[in-house]
Amino acid sequence: MVRAKKSVEFLRLQAEARSAREQYQLYKARTFGPRPVDPARLRELEQACESAEARLNLSTDAAEPTT
At what angle do helices 2-30 and 39-63 cross, to 10 degrees? Predict the structure, then answer.
């Protein structure tokens, strides 16, 4: 049961990280278009992406047994 909860949590963290990364990449791609983008929004999405990746990495590190 505990293992299933950890697995579900890990899958949720993976999905969050993927979503944040995709949102950041899509918004960053808009910077090459003709319409202006908000630099603050770009930084916000970048920070959200980094935070989600960090949470995923912490979860991965905690799940691995130390030898």
Answer: 160
The residue range of the domain holding 45 is 2-60
Evaluated on CA atoms 41, 45, 46, 47, the torsion sign reads: positive
Could you tell me which of 44, 50, 1 has the C-alpha nearest to residue 58?
50
Determine, yes or no, domain membership for 21: yes
Is residue 22 domain-resident? yes
> Rounded CA gap, 9 and 6, in Å?
5
Statement: the pTM of the whole predicted model exceeds 0.70: yes
The whole-angstrom separation of Cα 18 and Cα 54 is: 12
Digit-coded pLDDT (tens) for 11-27: 999 999 999 999 999 99
